[in-house]
């Protein structure tokens, strides 16, 4: 296995990015996240019972087992294959790293909403949006469909791209997969509902900790990417994002969402409904433009610029380190 933050690791990460952009996540191939989800569902069904304290303890134990087990299994798999032949280890780690990324998947999912929305087919756009968000979509108008998609692109730029890239550079596939396990745990049990408020407490808090730095770095690289493209709305976006991001109920999601809102000149947040229950989200950004289908490709351009800068900065550091040593 390659050393952390090394030229070899950078090469593996770049290969994984290329593989993800080329093929995405083929449905016919097994995916590690599917396996994580199956394990989490089984443990949750067996352990999420008892007193609130008991649920918290068992939820914390499940979180530790899934995260450490995922990272450990990835390390053992790569090490075993590398002993058979070094290239098998490299290929396994490259594929596992690609499984941690969702650049193509996020793009395709967003465009699946944008295309029918631009054609005025709200029913198809709502169906496509329902596949990537947890909110109710059946009654959304065109602007709300666009808002939901743009918010998803912004938030998942961290979960699906930049955070896995950071952890991959720091610890290869084992650490990147451990992060994906944290993310999967949060998406399955990290809710404040009656069922998960205690059992999912550890998962939700660990996810907040894991995403704290990536979310803030992503907001910065989104801004830098827009600056490199000479975007008009970059002045003031950093200050405004820092001011508004803490208003979001998530300690991390507000950073990329607020930055994207300001760079696009739109307002995100507002009223969402989850299973018929209203949830008020803080308004982020200023409504210089009315949200529409055109803002979804624009958000994707920001996404691509953001992750490219996010990857380019450590790449420059690694290359300089190699030259100077």
Compile the SSE list and pairings.
Blueprint: H1 7-23, H2 32-47, H3 52-84, H4 86-99, H5 103-118, H6 122-130, H7 142-189, H8 201-228, H9 237-244, H10 254-264, E1 267-274, E2 277-285, H11 295-324
Strand order of the largest sheet: 1-2
Low-pLDDT runs of 5+ residues are none
Instruction: Report the average pLDDT across residues.
Output: 95
Whole-number total of structural domains: 1
Structural class computed from helices and strand pairing: mainly alpha
N-to-C CA distance:
21 Å
> Given the structure, what is the number of helices?
11
Oligomer: single chain
Largest sheet properties? 2 strands, antiparallel
Question: What is the number of E strands?
Answer: 2
| Strand/helix succession | HHHHHHHHHHEEH
Textual characterization of the structure:
With 325 residues, this protein is mainly alpha-helical. The chain has one domain. Helix content is 71%, strand content 5%. It contains 11 helices and 2 strands; from the N terminus they run ααααααααααββα. Strands 1-2 form a two-stranded antiparallel sheet. β1 and β2 (277-285) form a beta hairpin. The mean pLDDT is 95.
List keywords for this structure.
single chain, 325 residues, mainly alpha, two-stranded antiparallel ribbon
Short description:
The chain is mainly alpha-helical.
């Amino acid at each position: 296995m390659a050393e952390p933050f090394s030229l070899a690791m950078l090469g593996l990460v770049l290969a994984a990015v290329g593989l993800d952009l080329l093929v995405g996540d083929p449905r016919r191939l097994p995916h590690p996240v599917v396996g994580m989800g199956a394990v989490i569902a089984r443990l949750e069904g067996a352990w999420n019972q008892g007193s609130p304290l008991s649920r918290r303890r068992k939820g914390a134990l499940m979180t530790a087992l899934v995260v450490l087990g995922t990272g450990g299994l990835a390390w053992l798999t790569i090490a075993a294959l590398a002993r058979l032949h070094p290239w098998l280890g490299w290929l396994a780690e490259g594929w596992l790293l690609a499984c941690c990324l969702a650049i193509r998947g996020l793009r395709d999912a967003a465009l699946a909403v944008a295309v029918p929305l631009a054609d005025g087919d709200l029913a198809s756009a709502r169906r496509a949006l329902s596949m990537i968000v947890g909110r109710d979509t059946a009654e959304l108008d065109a602007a709300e469909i666009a808002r939901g998609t743009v918010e998803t692109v912004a938030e998942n730029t961290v979960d699906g791209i930049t955070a896995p890239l950071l952890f991959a550079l720091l610890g290869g596939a084992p650490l990147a997969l451990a992060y994906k396990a944290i993310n999967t745990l949060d998406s399955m049990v990290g809710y404040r509902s009656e069922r998960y408020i205690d059992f999912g407490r550890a998962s939700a808090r660990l996810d907040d900790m894991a995403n704290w730095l990536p979310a803030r770095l992503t907001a910065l690289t989104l801004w830098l990417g827009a600056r490199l493209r000479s975007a008009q709305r970059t002045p003031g976006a950093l200050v405004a994002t820092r001011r508004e991001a803490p208003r979001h109920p998530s300690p991390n999601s507000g950073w990329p969402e607020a930055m994207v809102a300001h760079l696009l000149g739109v307002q995100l947040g507002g009223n969402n409904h989850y299973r018929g229950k209203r949830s008020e989200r803080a308004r982020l950004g200023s409504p210089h433009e009315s949200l529409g289908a055109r803002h979804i490709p624009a958000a994707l351009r920001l996404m691509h610029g953001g992750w490219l800068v996010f990857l380019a900065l450590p790449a420059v550091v690694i290359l300089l380190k190699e030259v100077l040593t």
